[in-house]
Protein: N-acetyltransferase domain-containing protein
Organism: bioreactor metagenome
Amino acid sequence: MSYLKKMVGERCYLSPVDGNEAEKVASWSNDIEVAIRTGDISDMITYEVQKEYLINMNNSRGYAFYIVRAEDDEVIGIGRLMRINYINRNAVMGMFIGERSNRNKGIGSEATKLILDFGFNVLNLRNIMIETFSFNEPAIKACKKCGFKEIGRRRKAIIYGNNEYDEVYMDILNEEFQDSIIDKVLNK
């Protein structure tokens, strides 16, 4: 399948989400490792529910992208900006790599930077925040690598079995963001 190349990095690019990958995304959404980390473990996601959700992700309060591996044009994850507040110029970012074989290879960090670049340099946002969980150390580490800073925690807010975890809030300001693809295009 051919995907549109909205934001292009070296290892991946971002393509606008549509309903065509509903089966693949539904399988990720029902994968326990992905669902626990996204907080969607209790959701009952069928192919039909997933397709409708994907179709409606790009609206006035959000932008959603497939993360596509550049070497073979394979969709490997999803990234999005949501709860966008254009008056206060802020948003919440969510992202995951659904395919296990593509994790811990730097693709997620590159995709995060592409999403931040879109948010800061296309939408002119000032602050982008992520929400994750204290047990999701790979996400926290990747976000810090991209320039996010921890801004707070909601203690013992997540309970899985007999385990209690904090919600972790991190953000990045536009002046802290580096590696803009947009700047490189403009300064050619």
In short: Residues 18 and 118 are 18 Å apart (CA to CA). The chain has one domain: 7-186.
